[in-house]
Design a protein that fits this description.
This protein has 119 residues and is an all-alpha fold. Helix content is 67%, strand content 0%. It is built from four helices and no strands.
Length: 119
């Protein structure tokens, strides 16, 4: 059962990553960030509902007795995974916002590219 669940998660992750990489390279970064958020949300919610990896691995990191704050963070390991997922999405968003700002300020003398073509 454990191998089956791990293989389903891995397959979903690999297919999602390939899809997101193609979207990013085709020039759709905001769609990529949105789809990435939905993919990570789906993976994390299914992990929470199946209590994975807490029920399958006997480690203190995923033991609710050590840290149980809510259903979203039932263990310290789940809190860490949720933090990594949110950090990844925020990192992509900040990267996209900063690269968009650099592109708009890179034109000479503050003129837009279309204004330069008409001169």
């Amino acid at each position: 059962m454990l191998i089956f669940i791990c293989s389903i998660f891995l397959l979903y992750f690999l297919l999602s990553f390939d899809f997101l990489r193609k979207k990013w390279k085709n020039g759709h970064p905001w769609q990529t960030i949105g789809y990435g958020f939905l993919a990570l949300l789906t993976i994390r919610l299914s992990m929470l509902f199946l209590n994975f990896p807490g029920d399958f691995f006997e480690t203190s990191l995923f033991d609710p007795a050590n840290y149980a704050s809510s259903w979203l963070n039932p263990s310290l390991g789940d809190l860490f995974l949720n933090t990594v997922c949110v950090g990844f999405i925020l990192g992509l968003t900040i990267f996209q916002l900063s690269s968009k700002k650099k592109q708009s300020s890179s034109s000479p003398h503050g003129k837009s590219k279309t204004a330069l073509n008409w001169e």
